[in-house]
Amino acid sequence: MNQRFHSVRLLEEKCKGCTNCIKRCPTEAIRVREGKAVINPERCIDCGECVRTCENHAKTVVTSSLKDLETFRFRIAIPAPALYGQLGKGVQPGQVVHGLLSLGFDAVCDVSFGADVATECTRRYIRRTPSPRPLISSACPAVVRLIQVRFPGLLPHVARVESPMFAAARLSRMEVSEERGIPPEDVGVFFITPCAAKVTAVIAPLGSECSYVDGAIAISDIFGQLSEAVASGVTAKPLHAGSGLGVGWAGNGGELRALGLSNTLAVDGIHNVISLLEEVETGRLRGVDYIEALACPAGCVGGPVSVENPFVARVRVREVADGLLSEVGPDTSGEVAAILDKHGEESFEILGDIPALSGLELDRDLKTAIAMMGQLEKVLADLPGLDCGACGSPTCRALAEDIVRGNASETDCMFKLRERMREVAEELLGLTKKDLPAMGRRDGK
Asked: Using N-to-C axis directions, what is the helix angle for 366-381 and 396-405, rounded to 10°?
């Protein structure tokens, strides 16, 4: 089995085997066995849907902590724009920068500036890539993982532009190293994240063998300390401040607003994304050039390790973005153009392969897989089709698949078990009517 890193983990002691998570998992990666959820690492895309769904808090996201800063000589925080929606109405980016510095960081580079860089790179990528269409944004790593696992035929549609997180990390590390004479390996870059998938992307980046980020700290983990620091009202400046359009990337539709292009479409929420990708797969979205797809409801502001209601957070982010778009807000277009001239667009592109990931295939051998599919359909036809989940698999089809794979039996289905028990009972009843020949009776006569 391919051992992929996953940030989403099960807290077994809290799991009650309630089956809520198996119903919401977009890749059917979870089963309940022996009263506990079991996550299939080959199928999990770290979208965090199970973290959000679990009422028992039995799923968690493994992240870095402030203690990890001690490993580095110089520490840079790169806050997600979604952070601006978490800390109360009216809180401005400068206050957040001051707050992060007071937590032990030496500098802050706004990821919304990375979004400004990604916006320009994406605009150019769309212009020079006439096909395939529609192109799909690579900004959400959960969506890209979803495509790798469930829609591998759409991988050529993924725009090969680095995420705002990596753009901000790469720039800030490079500049601090050059300007302060600190070796790059002594500079620690930490993403302040609302998102489980980005934690995974930090450790296992998409299309690259090296990560520009050294760790990811959950917004929920530092929320209390940061709220207190921000309340002082003191402000500070980041290495790079993003524009209002860059900040807007935190909410759904924000990337498209920044791109300012026509024939585009935005979708948020992992199950809505799946529905849309199914339409792309069947060729029903002709005429659309670009899709912004975000796994979390309302966009990154709804990430599973954020703290605020996603719709409240989205409104706050819009207020911050609109404020920056006013006359006093920064215009980063010249700064972005200078950076791209200096480093080249390819510095912010995904240059490596993004392969299809196994997980949903029945077998790697095509002939065997076809034979197993035939068995699966036969088993499925005999199941009740109620998708009740009582067997520990999310649907009857998933149970049929588990049976064919040898991971479950038909009597895991309570209806099939009851049917089998009735058969056994009738057989036992028949046996009670039999007698030994020596006792003078046969078959109840």
From this structure: 130
Q: Which residue reads 């003078």 in tokens?
A: 440
Mean pLDDT value across the chain: 94
pLDDT value of residue 332: 85
Q: Whole-structure pTM over 0.90, yes or no? A: yes
pLDDT value for 331:
77
Strand bridging mode 8-10 / 59-61? antiparallel
For the purposes of burial, counting CB atoms within 10 Å of the CB of 23, is it exposed (0-12), middle (13-18) or buried (19 or more)? Answer: middle
Tens of pLDDT, residues 230-282: 999 999 999 999 999 999 999 999 999 999 999 999 999 999 999 999 999 99
Measure the CA–CA gap between 342 and 337, rounded to whole angstroms. 9
**Residue 184: how many other CB atoms lie within 10 Å:** 12
Q: Report the distance separating Cα 370 and Cα 363, nearest Å.
A: 9
> How many CA atoms are closer than 13 Å to the CA of 383, on its beta-carbon side?
29
Distance of CA 229 to the CA centre of its chain: 29
Token digits for 377?
């359909």
DSSP-derived pairing of the beta strands 30-33 and 135-136 = unpaired
Question: What's 242's DSSP letter?
Answer: P
| pLDDT at residue number 328 | 60
- Name the percent of the chain in helix, strand, coil, to the closest 5: 50, 10, 40
**H-run or E-run covering 100:** helix 93-102
Identify each DSSP E strand in 19-88 by its residue range: 30-33, 36-39, 59-61, 74-79
